[in-house]
């Protein structure tokens, strides 16, 4: 009966992956999607015609191309990594060993296995393990840059015969203007994971992990129009965040904008199959494969939007109350909008493959007293050809004289001629993340096991939390 239930669960997971049709992903109908929070921080259309800039002297600023391209860099970097949040190991907990004197299987009393990594042993023939865990992520940095203070510079598009690169004086002086921004992103994720493992044989088990995710994202942008052309061609509209009533006589060059979205739903279901190839007296080696199904709504950051396959190996060994393990695997991922561009300047939204990654870990477990053990892990991931961001300087064009003498402009760049603003740009490169984890596992009563764990970051690459707390409970029978 249990075997039939397991295979029905696998079939259901395979059939429940959503299909996403191509569309304007951050249009009016989709503006409440979490992935569109940044794209719509200035309104549905951003800093484009009809957006947050007021027409003055019959001219409206057109910063849309620069706005979308700069923020899409941050969007894709965040989205590509949110689909890879760590899950608690679905098959570790109370293990059973054969007691020769009693002639029966008895539960472990001292060592209850790893928390975020994998041991070689399986749960046992016709044994079942069910559990629930909670993890909290509060992201502070992206590729080492503080999410609470991300700079971005938006530049004016060429228009009406006026070019930023050539004709940018006189009546065209307005094309020299830029909008400098300081952006704060508040991104928090609560992940609740239910999992079940069933031993088909003494060496082979199947696990299914189903996360439910609550994600909240807020974006605040403090924007300043740099009136380099000295012609007051641009002004922000009056509204929340404006420091004054905006008029043609008194234009607003500073304003703060805010946007917030949140979502709750089922994330990406993961199915794991593990087989213990070799089992010695004090050691063992197993191979397995994780398959991730894109069941979560990727545009709400509830899932990756792509299939993932990760074969892995797990070697473990131990003596009495002390055990250790080493894991390694490689994950292949499909394509998703999160790794592409959901707000293209021209054309349709695009998908890209999530970066492949090599994952590895090493750890140890120690039985402290009866019913209580400690678990320690070092976890590493190597992401290949992944979207990233980095800080770059942006030199403004030199200041023009005040109107009406706007034909006199300083064409020098850099510190000798103008201000240099902080900015970010996107690039692709491989990078590594490393974390350490420490936790305790306590056998409450019977076959119930309580888990507490904290994951700490070691380096700043990627989308990072300083620490990730975890609590969980499992039942083995």
Number of domains: 1
Beta-strand residue percentage: over 45%
The radius of gyration computed from the alpha-carbon positions, rounded to a whole number of angstroms, is 27 Å
Sequence of secondary-structure elements: HEHEEEEEEEEEEEEEEEEEEEEE
Given helix and strand content, the structural type is: mainly beta
User: What is the name of the CATH class?
Assistant: Mainly Beta
Overall mean pLDDT stands at: 81
Count of extended strands: 22
Helix share bin? under 10%
> Low-confidence segments, ≥5 residues, pLDDT <50?
1-22
CATH fold-level label: Porin
Name given to the CATH architecture: Beta Barrel
Report the end-to-end length measured between terminal Cα atoms: 15 Å
Dominant shape: elongated
For CATH, the homologous superfamily is named as monomeric porin ompg
Number of helices, where a helix is a run of at least 4 consecutive DSSP H or I residues: 2
Main beta sheet, described? 12 strands, antiparallel, barrel
Strand order of the largest sheet: 4-7-8-11-12-13-14-17-18-19-20-22
Structure description:
By secondary structure, this protein is mostly beta strands. The protein contains two helices and 22 strands. The strands form four sheets. A twelve-stranded antiparallel β-barrel has the order 4-7-8-11-12-13-14-17-18-19-20-22. The protein has a two-stranded antiparallel ribbon with strand order 1-9. Strands 2-3 form a two-stranded antiparallel sheet. A hairpin with a 4-residue loop joins strand 19 and strand 20. The two termini are 15 Å apart.
